[in-house]
Design brief:
By secondary structure, the protein is mainly α. Helix content is 64%, strand content 0%. The longest helix has 25 residues, at 38-62.
């Protein structure tokens, strides 16, 4: 499936869920739970935040340079020996 088809499928699913949300009686205690589509938007924004945050964390904290292990194995000066 191409990216355009995935995007159309996601928009169709969001439209169906939003339509079903209008038919259901809201049971939330706060005023924002009574807004149509709030839970859909909140869930989507939360998922996007998790993905973007995890990618940023992986880039900053987990990812190492391409020659990370080779440099440690041969020493920082490239002549070999203990690091």
């Amino acid at each position: 499936m191409t990216a355009v088809r995935w995007a159309l499928a996601a928009m169709l699913a969001a439209a169906v869920v939003s339509g079903l949300d209008l038919l259901a009686h809201p049971h939330g205690e706060a005023w924002w739970h009574h807004l149509p589509g709030f839970d859909l938007v909140y869930g989507f924004v939360g998922c996007v935040a998790i993905v973007v945050g995890s990618k940023a964390l992986g880039k900053v904290w987990l990812q190492r340079p391409e020659r990370f292990y080779e440099d440690r194995e041969h020493g920082e000066d490239g002549k070999g020996g203990e690091a």
